[in-house]
Design a protein that fits this description.
There is one protein chain. The chain has one domain. Helix 1 runs antiparallel to helix 2 and helix 2 packs antiparallel against helix 3. It starts with about 25 loop residues before the first helix and ends in an 8-residue tail after the last helix. About 80% of the residues lie in helices and about 0% in strands. The chain contains three helices and no strands. By secondary structure, the protein is mainly alpha-helical.
Length: about 190
């Protein structure tokens, strides 16, 4: 039976030389989490802006609802909009939290990878394996956060489109009623 030599796969493999042969190998391990950190940060900025827009829309609908003195149907329409906007704002806030978690996880993965590259040059391969596993876990948390956050944003977008569709349909119905019965008989905004 042939005896196999055991060596850490990240330090030296058949196709790649060791870190001492190729100093750019360390950069490739550190760059991937750095790029993903940038992606998570950009998503966070966009989602934060989106959250502000949803909250602004909630304020507008609340103000319109407070100023209504017309029919119960109009009040119900605005109250349904407020409920939908509340659900949307919660989804966006949760997605934003996941994107922040991702950015932090990817930042940690980049730092852990850098520390791991230091261990690769030393003779402490046990420490290298432990740090490699920590880096992998941190990256996995980051990717999971991106996937969950993006899924929440897709749900929020569906709710937004549904809310806009309902608002347009209600507006169309109001226009038809006003055309049919006259402005004096139908509540106006």
């Amino acid at each position: 039976m042939r005896e196999r030599s055991v060596r850490p796969c990240l330090i030296e493999s058949e196709g790649m030389g060791s870190f001492t042969d190729n100093p750019f190998a360390v950069l490739t391990i550190v760059v991937a989490p750095a790029i993903l950190t940038n992606a998570a940060s950009i998503l966070s900025m966009g989602v934060a802006t989106h959250l502000g827009r949803v909250l602004d829309r909630r304020r507008i609908v609340s103000t319109q609802l407070a100023g209504l003195t017309t029919s119960l149907e109009d009040r119900m329409l605005y109250q349904r909009q407020l409920i939908g906007l509340e659900v949307r704002s919660r989804l966006v806030l949760r997605a934003l939290r996941f994107f922040y978690l991702s950015a932090g996880s990817f930042g940690a993965a980049a730092l852990i990878s850098l520390l791991g590259s230091i261990y690769a040059f030393s003779s402490l391969h046990v420490g290298f394996t432990t740090i490699g596993i920590l880096g992998l876990l941190s990256g996995t948390v980051g990717v999971t956060g991106l996937v969950v956050g993006c899924t929440m944003m897709v749900q929020e977008t569906r709710l937004a489109v549904h809310g806009l569709t309902q608002e347009v349909q209600a507006g169309d119905e109001l226009v038809m009623l006003r055309a049919r019965f006259g402005r004096d008989h139908i509540g106006s905004d």
